[in-house]
# Entry
Amino acid sequence: MKMKKILASLLMGVMTISLAACGGTKTSTDSSNNSSATASSDDKTFEIIYLTPSTASQFWTHVGIGIENAMKDLEEKEGIKVNYTIVGPAEESQTEEYVTAFEKAIAKNPDAIVTATLAIDATVPKAKEATEKGIVLNFVNCGLGVGDDGAYQDYYNQFYYCSNDTIGEMAAQAFLEAMEKKGIEKGVVGINMNVENEALNHRIQSFRDYMAANAPQLTLTDTYYNGNVVETAQANAENIISTYGSELIGMYSGNNITGDGVCLAVESAGIGSKIVSVAVDSDDIEINALKNGNLDAIIVQDAYAQGYKVMENAILTLLNGSNPESSKQVNCPPVIVTKDNMDSEEMLNLLDPTRLKK
# Structure
């Protein structure tokens, strides 16, 4: 496409000038052809791939709804056509399959790839390869760093994320508020997370740091990792419950899969009214647990908005030949959802973005 040629020239020029260059837009793979031209009204069909970390996860499905809605809106507004494909492994834990899917996506030489990664080290060289080929590469929620650290920003075009430090701090705040409501003053807090990951670990450490500064009387367990398997998360929570008994006053779950397992364990033990439980991200199990008292709060990222923005940016970058954002990392703050506010229209849309699907 003519669009590809101008973007090849732009990318090569910027990469020559500075190592701080942005990830460029889609270019021709024929290096012998250096002519360029702006995309015309007859040349606005784009191939875009959503490489999801999990086709089974509700969270990534919610991101996908935002992606698809942005695509439909831009097709109508800009008079373009997007050939859209979703690829990726079934489960987040299948990181090798994710990397293989990334390789295959690059081989298809699309105009853009929007993705999220839970395997940073293995993804970095793939991101570099994609960007050097002129593919517009945008990350959503989980990128090559924690967000505002600027890690490997030469290897992608744009990153929309939710600060994991903020998530951990808000989870701690919600935990302490729930403790006060239940009249709990001290005890042991079980810490649960899906995987060890440079970015996701900030959700745990910021929770620990906030508690150390604001509730030093509490004892926090080591982090129980579950490999992003609900059954393992449930088994870990059951182990914490049996180990600490009456000393246990609550649990923190760093993602929705972990939260699912903890909610199931709390329900099975019948201790929802006796302890505080706070989780991150929403799905059906967590929403039901919030309703029935087995979960006190969910720190909810706006998965829909992140998905919408990441696709909108990819398309506008392709259309304009440059990234419209002034910053390559844009933070999309989370909110605290409790039983008291979960039925408002705003919170219902956050908890279940399928309500917004076009």
